Amino acid sequence: MSTSDWHPRLETTTELLDPAPVAALAALFDDGLPAPAPGDTLPPLWHWVALPRWAASGALGPDGHPRRGAFLPPVALPRRMFAGGEVRFHSPLTVGEAVRREAEVVSVTEKTGRSGALVVVHVDIRLFTGAGELAVSEHQNIVYREAAQRPDQAASLPSEAEPGLPLNRIGANEWALHTDPTLLARFSAATANAHRIHYDWPYATAVEGYPGLVVHGPLQALALLEVHRLMDGAPVRELRHRGRAPLFCGERARLLASAVPNGVALELFGPRGESAGPCATVDVVTG
């Protein structure tokens, strides 16, 4: 199927804000905050976990994602990245309630970047409470890129670090993020994310050309928001999240929170520190 033969469609479903993956994410962070239980308000962005979308095995492509050409366009470029987005929170969602989910592709744009050809797919998602109120409006940016050059030298082996607490406070507004293969596998399971770059080291290194397992973009964004929760941050009205550079499993990472007018800026820095710029950012508007 070519992109010209594909047409976007509105996908409407009724889904449960599942308490099981919510509890799984709380167990993953293990940071002392109470796990949201049925009847509790869902924390910001936790709908990524509470609404897992398990594709049928026969519908998966070689990278582990659902084959393109149904909801998402049949983009030929092989490497997929969840690049960021914007989210507004209108009404609270409750763990265990049924919600109406509306999703549609609003644009498909071909571009040329420093790394070659790429396609940017914009997806809009709306979640409505059981009473029919708009709760969340979300805009997601998905980027497809060309295949990477195979590395000239052997990639490093997967991190041998033992599983441990992902978040450790190292300053008043500063936290360390610990990642290991177990953490990535558990997050993939909680979010129904079968993308092989997060758990299949031979595929990630030999096929997609990464130096190791890739830490999920949504995991980085949720970790930054968890820091906001741990600091007793004000309720989140809206946010913008962006993945700027990859973070690989086992790499040293630091999360920093800075007060800004009307909210807080959350940044995740990789092993090269602030001089290289953040790997991920979340800009939060509170109130």
Query: In order across it, which strands form the biggest sheet?
Result: 1-3-4-5-2-8-11-10-9-7-6
Low-confidence stretches: none
Q: In DSSP terms, counting alpha (H) and pi (I) runs of 4 or more, how many helices?
A: 5
How far is the N terminus from the C terminus? Answer: 46 Å
Integer average pLDDT: 92
Helix- and strand-based class?
Answer: alpha+beta
Give the proportion of residues in helices. 10-25%
Mass-distribution shape: globular
What does this molecule look like?
The structure is a single chain. The protein is of the alpha+beta class and 287 residues long. It has 5 helices and 11 strands, in the order E-H-H-E-E-E-E-E-E-H-H-H-E-E-E-E. The N and C termini lie far apart (46 Å).
Essential attributes:
287 residues, alpha+beta, globular
Short synopsis of the structure:
With 287 residues, the chain is α+β, with helices and mostly antiparallel strands. The protein has five helices and eleven strands; from the N terminus they run E-H-H-E-E-E-E-E-E-H-H-H-E-E-E-E.
What's the structural blueprint in terms of helices and strands?
Blueprint: E1 11-16, H1 19-29, H2 47-50, E2 79-89, E3 98-113, E4 116-128, E5 134-145, E6 167-171, E7 174-177, H3 181-190, H4 201-207, H5 217-230, E8 236-243, E9 253-260, E10 263-269, E11 280-286
Antiparallel strand pairs: 1-3, 2-5, 2-8, 3-4, 4-5, 6-7, 7-9, 8-11, 9-10, 10-11
